[in-house]
Amino acid sequence: MSKSTDSHGRLTILDEFGTDPGSLQSYTYIPKNFPKNGPLVVVLHGSTQSAESYDSGSGWSALADECGIALLFPEQRETNNSIKSFNWFKFGDSHRGSGEPLSIRQMIRQVVDDHAIDPSRVFVTGMSSGGAMATVMLATYPEVFAGGAIIAGLPYRSAVTLMEALVRMRGYGGPSDSELDALVREASTFEGPWPTISVWHGGSDLTVDNANADAIVRQWQKIHEVEGPPTREEEVDGFPRQVWCNADGREVIEKFIIGGMAHGTPIMAGGDEGLGEEGKFMLEVGISSTRHIANFWGLTR
C-alpha cells in the first residue's frame, strides 16, 4: 500500500487514500513505539516548503519518536499551486466534501484505519498557507479533530479570491466578528464539542499580519462560548501566553504572539527539550511551538 521515499528516509509515501479530488501527495511517519489507539497529528507545510522540509525544521518526527505519535503530512503539488501553497481561499478547496479538504480527510481515514489510531485523538497543525488550510479543516471537518494549531495563518473563509487573500494577509478588511463565527457554523452540520484552538504568530510578521491571529481567536471564541478577555495570561519560555477557559475550566483557546519574530514557525533547536533545525520560515527564537502544541493537546504526558 505504501513505500518509502528516498528523500530523507524519514517519511513514507501514502500511495492510496481515496479519490484525492484535490490532487495532493501524502506522507506518513509512524514511530516504532507507536501504541495501538495512539494519536495522529496532521502537519501542513507552508508555501515553498515540502513535507520533508517542514518536518525537519519543526521536529515533529523527533517528537513522535519521543512520545509515540503518528504523523500525516499532506503535500501540495506545483501543478496545483506554483509556490506549493495550499489553496485555502479557493471555493472548491475551502468547503466540506470537495478539493483539498476532502483529499486530506481521505488521507486521515486511511491512516486511522491502517494504524489503529484513536479517532478521538486526531489533531491538525499548519504554518502560513498550511495554517490557513488547518483552519479550513477545523471548520469543515470539526468532528474529525480534537484540536488544531494555526501558525502564521488566517481565519476560515476570510478571503475568497487571490486578491482578497493578499489583502487579508496584510491585515486589512475581512469578515465582521459575527460573520467569522457564522462561517464556521455554516461549514458543517456539527454542533460540538468543538476542537481546541492554539494560535501562534510572529509579532513582526510582514507576510501575514498578526491581526489575523486575533481574528482567528475571535472566530472561535463564540464557538467555544469564551468571549471577552483571556481567562489568564502567563509567560512561557519568555513569551506571553493568553488562555481562554470554558465554564468547566478547560483550556479551549490559547494564543502566543512571539515578539520580534518574522513569518514562520517558532522553534528551539538546542538543549534537552530542543526540536527541529533552523531554516527558511523555521525561526530559532527559543521556544518550540511543536513541543508546546503537543503539550497543549496532552500528547507529551
UniProtKB/TrEMBL annotation:
Q: Per its UniProt entry, which superkingdom is the organism in?
A: Bacteria
At the highest ranks, the source species' classification is:
Bacteria, Pseudomonadati, Pseudomonadota, Gammaproteobacteria, Pseudomonadales
> What does the UniProt keyword field contain?
Hydrolase, Signal
SUPFAM superfamilies this protein is in? alpha/beta-Hydrolases
**Does the record's keyword annotation contain Signal?**
yes
Task: Show the GO cellular component annotation of the record.
Answer: extracellular region
Q: What is the recorded name of this protein?
A: Esterase, PHB depolymerase family
Sorted alphabetically, which PANTHER family does this protein's record hold? BLL1128 PROTEIN, UNNAMED PRODUCT-RELATED
Pfam families reported for this sequence: Esterase_PHB (PF10503)
* Keyword Signal appears in the UniProt entry: yes
A GO molecular-function descriptor: hydrolase activity
